[in-house]
Design brief:
mainly alpha; elongated; disordered N terminus
Amino acid sequence: MSKTENEKDEKKFSDVLKISWVKSSLILGAVIITISIIILFLMKYFNFGSSQLFSDTKAFVNEYGLVGIFFATILAGTIIPLGSLALVAAAALLGVPPLPLVLVATTGFTIGMIINYVLACKLGRPFVIKKLSPEKLEEISGLWGKWGWILYTIFGLIPVLPVEFLSLICGLLKTRLDIFLILSFIPRFIVFAILAYFGEYAGVWMGIA
């Protein structure tokens, strides 16, 4: 392939970020991150960690947090916007041990992705169109046809991008299940691990760990 063709492909790949629903996901993610940082500073400034409400919340989360995270991430994997990423960071902030937290969250999310895959595989295009729009389905199918598993991995590694949409495409196209499972689990494990350890260190910084 010539240099000109390579540059053309790279340009086209960068154009993925210009797609309206991708751009809106990135903007929403930036807003959420900014608000979360502001909340952390406010919590530290007002010494929220010394309040009885915080103590009660922390005790509850440590007792039942993993169960809640498990079911929340299953639902998040099935395109129900429950903010699983924020829940993982918050649970770590409140003292849930990072390793079991990450394993539980990643397992739950992967189960949610499997549900998407199976439903799309069994129910076909009409089901997928109900979850997406025909236009979005066409866009994602085009992206998948060009980049396939590379795109799936990238979406899995960037928390705010809707990798859940791609799981429907995988089911619709009946892609290899073993690759689907691996690339559903590993990228999200990395993301949840980063968020969990960020939450843990944020707790130390705030003096509430």
